[in-house]
Design a protein that fits this description.
This protein has 75 residues and is α+β, with helices and mostly antiparallel strands. Helices cover 47% and strands 17% of the residues. The longest helix is centred in the C-terminal third of the chain and has 11 residues. The chain starts with a strand and ends in a 5-residue tail after the last strand.
């Protein structure tokens, strides 16, 4: 069994903190367009980005994505 990143929950976390994508992007040092690509699922966060995002949003890294369980055939 392993875990796979599912839907990005960044927009939900931003809404929880009443923070705009633009404000979050500025704090993270990235463009608003990059944040939009994360929210839409076009891009995935690096581990470093996720750690920093979780710190800014006062949440756990695991709160940033739905984690899907993948069963390996050998199990």
């Amino acid at each position: 069994m392993s875990l796979q990143l599912g839907k990005c929950l960044l927009l939900e976390r931003l809404n929880d903190k009443e923070m705009s994508q633009a404000s979050f992007a500025k704090r993270m040092g990235v463009s608003r367009q990059y944040v939009s690509k994360l929210v839409s699922g076009e891009r995935k966060m690096s581990l470093e980005f996720a750690f920093n995002a979780a710190q800014i949003l006062d949440c756990h890294i695991s709160d940033l994505y739905i984690l899907n369980v993948v069963h390996n055939r050998r199990e």
